């Protein structure tokens, strides 16, 4: 019973803090977007850093989730890179913030996600403001989204670290059955611990970033040896992961093939290695590289962020209820998020405005 209550509290606070963060703390970015694109980017990244520290803190501080990281740990926070990862659960991108905060400069992390997530009040609004990349799973349209967003990051000299899940969906019973059928049709090895990757988007991503600068590709393998948070519903049932295990392998840009077709084959080879690595993990070792020491770096900032957001939610709700000005602010800003989201999305509008603003400044 206690674990169920804990799971419910995680979901409730996840939703409430995302609403509070976007409507109250991120809202100044609307003004910054109009007058200073650089300030717009900086403010949103700051809010992203602070809120994602809270999400990490919920697991590590309150529920003592242990994080194990091994392999090639990033050394340069300004590095421009692509992070490829197996997609074991729907929570992978969120839980990876525990590693991003420690080693990848989480404020520069941009995640490629399915398009419908942008419409979720609170968290979806925040992801739009952060210029996450939303896909419609139709390559003709997704190619345009990829290209325009990456051009924007290149033009503003932004050290983006882009997470892509080449499998396209998380590993579960239905997707695994589809994976078996796909492997049979194409005469491929049957995978039991991951899905065969879709490589078109990855190859295009590498090629596009190389036009300006790409430092490396990080191949991340994630595993959950005990409780697996397959979805939000599993959290509601109190299934909170005790351990998160990550193995990281860095490939310098110079090590990658030049041709897009060869890049696709390179990605497929990494997944074949990942399948073997995961089989060894789940059937024998329950650890990567024999690492049995949890990573506790940065714990203090997670504690501070957690305490801040736990306190700020009831304070914000109280002030919104009793303060007319704040109440109107919440209504107006929420309406703006809804309108902009269904028009084109703030991630698109902010890029359009940047080019308009920059072009106007050059003409003057």
Automatic annotation (TrEMBL):
InterPro entries: Acyltransf_C (IPR032098), Plipid/glycerol_acylTrfase (IPR002123). Residues 81-203 form the Phospholipid/glycerol acyltransferase domain. GO terms for molecular function: acyltransferase activity. Keywords: Acyltransferase, Membrane, Transferase, Transmembrane, Transmembrane helix. The chain crosses the membrane at residues 12-34, 46-63, 302-322, 328-355. GO terms for cellular component: endomembrane system; endoplasmic reticulum. SUPFAM superfamilies: Glycerol-3-phosphate (1)-acyltransferase (SSF69593). It comes from the Eukaryota. Pfam families: Acyltransf_C, Acyltransferase. The keyword Nucleotide-binding does not apply. GO terms for biological process: phosphatidylinositol acyl-chain remodeling. SMART domains: PlsC. Belongs to the 1-acyl-sn-glycerol-3-phosphate acyltransferase family. This is Phospholipid/glycerol acyltransferase domain-containing protein. It comes from Trichoplax adhaerens (Trichoplax reptans).
């Amino acid at each position: 019973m206690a674990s169920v209550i804990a799971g419910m509290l995680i979901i409730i606070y996840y939703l409430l803090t995302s609403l509070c963060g976007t409507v109250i703390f991120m809202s100044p970015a609307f003004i910054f977007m109009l007058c200073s694109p650089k300030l717009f980017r900086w403010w949103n990244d700051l809010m992203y850093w602070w809120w994602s520290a809270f999400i990490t803190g919920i697991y590590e501080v309150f529920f003592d989730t242990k994080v194990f990281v091994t392999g090639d740990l990033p050394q340069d926070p300004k590095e421009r890179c692509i992070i490829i990862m197996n997609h074991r659960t729907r929570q992978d991108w969120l839980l990876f913030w525990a590693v991003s905060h420690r080693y990848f400069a989480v404020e520069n992390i941009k995640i490629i996600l399915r398009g419908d997530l942008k419409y979720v009040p609170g968290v979806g609004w925040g992801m739009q403001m952060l210029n996450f990349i939303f896909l419609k799973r139709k390559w003709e349209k997704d190619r345009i989204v990829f290209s325009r967003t990456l051009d924007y990051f290149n033009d503003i000299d932004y050290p983006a670290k882009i997470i892509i899940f080449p499998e396209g969906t998380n590993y579960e019973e239905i997707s695994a059955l589809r994976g078996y059928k796909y492997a049979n049709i194409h005469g491929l090895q049957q995978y039991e611990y991951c899905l065969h990757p879709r490589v078109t988007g990855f190859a295009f991503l590498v090629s596009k970033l190389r036009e300006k600068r790409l430092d490396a590709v990080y191949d991340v393998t994630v595993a959950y040896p005990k409780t697996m948070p397959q979805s939000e519903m599993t959290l509601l049932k109190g299934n909170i992961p005790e351990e998160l295990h990550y193995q990281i392998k860095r490939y310098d840009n110079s090590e990658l093939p030049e041709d897009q077709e060869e890049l696709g084959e390179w990605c497929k080879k990494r997944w074949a290695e990942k399948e073997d690595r995961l089989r060894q993990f789940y059937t024998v070792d329950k650890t990567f590289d024999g690492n049995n020491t949890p990573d506790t770096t940065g714990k203090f900032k997670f504690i501070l962020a957690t305490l801040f957001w736990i306190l700020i939610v009831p304070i914000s709700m109280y002030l919104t209820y009793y303060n007319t000005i704040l109440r109107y602010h919440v209504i107006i800003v929420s309406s703006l998020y809804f309108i902009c989201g269904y028009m084109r999305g703030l991630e698109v509008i902010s890029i359009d405005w940047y080019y308009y603003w920059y072009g106007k400044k050059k003409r003057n």
